[in-house]
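Quick board copy: two proteins, each given as sequence then tokens.
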Amino acid sequence: MDIGEKEVYHPNVLIDGELKAANLLIVDGRIKSIRIGERDLESEEVPQFGILMPGMADIHVHINEPGNTDWEGFDTATRAAAAGGVTTIIDMPLNSLPVTTTLAAFEEKLQASEGKRHVNVGFWGGVVPGNLEELSKLIEAGVLGFKAFLVHSGLDAFPNADLATLKAAMPVIEKAGLPLLVHAELEHETASTEGLDADPQSADAWLASRPQAMEISAIESMIALCKQTNCRTHIVHLSAAEALPAISAAMEQGLPLTVETAPHYLFFASEDILDGEVQYKCAPPIREHENNLALLEAVKEGIISMIGTDHSPAPAALKQMESGNFLKAWGGIASLQLMLPVLWTLLGKEENALSLLTDLCITKPYQFLGLTDRKGKIEVGYDADFVIWQPDWIFGVEAQDLKFRHPDTCPYLGEVLSGKVLQTYVNGELVFDQDEIVQSNAGKIIYHESKRTS
């Protein structure tokens, strides 16, 4: 076998929706051939159980580098991704400093990632008031799309865009065929911080400060702009089930509208969050159990077609872990490494569980990113990005096993999950093996289609 070639065998390879014993020949990071059948003697040893499937994509990750690497950074974030079977992550334009709203800032972020990409990394640019002229430069540089907030982002360097700003930006984005991702909350008369002012440790007061009406109003406004501009519009981290009828109606009209939710909106419920438990603080907030069941049904029906973790860790002091102050605590959930087991714990008993999981975390995200020509399948010519995992393996979440920064702020600590990642390959390289990172910097930068050269 030539240098640069390797063979991998597994008895349960997910090929065209079916599990088959197969030998994969990998050459220069891509799948050169697939031979269905028993193990070849020369094949590399791998665990002889579980499932081998394409590596997952997490389209919503806050890496925070440069500028806030003490919150999270490329090295730790991509280690966590590999440990979770995620072979492609897309970085949000905040909370790094500088934020990715100019070409210069994007170039600085690319430089910061050098030598630290243990999985593939792509980038969203940002839309903020005053950076309209930068959008075409960012598009030419290869960003995969753009992110905007309709309320304060939590970071003054990334101000929220008003609807007039978005109306001017969306035709530029649409012309490039890229999506606009929107944090869809708008200030609403039903929102109030009075409860938090009176009792900043109150979990119920935090929930009341971000009512579903804020999401509904924002989503209705974005549907109207989507209709006017025909720009691909993506609602991130939906938490308000009451917005689903408007979303369904827009989709039935054929608008280019897509929606994601985050695992924590499906797994946790506000009834179970105690006062002072700021590890659960995020925006929009985690809502009631009944609401989350409606979100889960929308996931099963395909209305919510993608999952993104919205991974956003922060130091314990910034998260107010000692004070339990919801008013001051950073709003972000640390969870990148746990997307697969959390979803499998929720969906594993469904008749079509594996198909549903791969749709949410592989097929639809790679379609959304325009990468279906080379990622998201075990197929000849595709990049050798895949994960080997054991669906039946039950484990408790412990901080010592988490690769991202500040695992002590992770709300999943102590939870018992099913679905254990055993190995992760990135571009043909074994990066994660039995709880350890064994290969560094195997990831590549992901650019949008017109920027890609190979």
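And the next:
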Amino acid sequence: MRVSNFINLSVVSGFFIGLAMGIMKFDEPELMLFMTIVVTISMYLISLTMAAIYIYVIEPKRSMLSNKDLIERQLEYFDAEFDHTERQARALQQFIETFDFSTDEQESTKKADK
């Protein structure tokens, strides 16, 4: 089972367990809602803790902090993409600076006069 599916299943289970406990224990709807929310949040935190332990113990190579080569490759890729984007922005800026806007302004004033 994927970790995200486990977390989702735990949250939904926590909701229904909290709802059942709230209905059995309390008569006021506010207290039932409070119990449902508390149990749902508790199950969510427990499932996040279990998922973190699972990822840390079972799959340590997938952890971002332990894989320095992967991080360096990703940073080099992002750096190259940033350089490429910066070159494109500079080329657009140079094009805009060399473009002659005076002819467009004269044509638009001529059309407005007609």
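Board note added afterward: The helical segments are 3-25, 29-58, 68-98, 102-113.
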